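User: Here's a structure from my thesis project, written as structure tokens. My advisor, Dr. K., wants to see whether a designed sequence matches the one we expressed. Can you design one independently, without my sequence as a hint?
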């Protein structure tokens, strides 16, 4: 396989794993930050309590810390795996991380129907 074709294939896996790593860290920080912040109740009686400080902290961390760190470290990880014994494992790893995160988010959204209450 030519080097250019190999790099193009690796670019898709690198982008997928970088985005997946950033989203995974974001999801891991979501619950603790929401638990530590106090909800703000608006003057409007119909408004839901807001976790604005936690949301602002998450987006600040996400765009200024998490995304750049995943863009720095994940490509090196992908290169090390691609140069190892099982470079084909990258495609499966990318598929598993994206599928696992999608299922996690889906179960969190559906958890409101369960006895323990909503997850979000």
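Assistant: Designed independently from the structure alone:
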């Amino acid at each position: 396989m030519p080097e250019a074709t190999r790099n193009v294939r690796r670019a898709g896996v690198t982008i997928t794993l970088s985005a997946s790593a950033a989203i995974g860290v974001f999801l891991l920080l979501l619950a603790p930050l929401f638990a530590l912040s106090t909800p703000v109740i608006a003057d409007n009686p119909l408004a839901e309590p807001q976790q604005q400080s936690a949301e602002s902290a998450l987006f600040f961390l996400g765009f200024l810390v998490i995304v750049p760190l995943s863009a720095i470290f994940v490509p090196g990880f992908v290169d090390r795996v691609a140069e190892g014994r099982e470079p084909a494992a990258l495609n499966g790893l990318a598929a598993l991380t994206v599928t696992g995160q999608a299922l996690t988010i889906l179960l969190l959204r559906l958890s409101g129907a369960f006895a323990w209450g909503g997850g979000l």
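When you compare it with your expressed construct, this may help: DSSP finds three helices and no strands in the chain.
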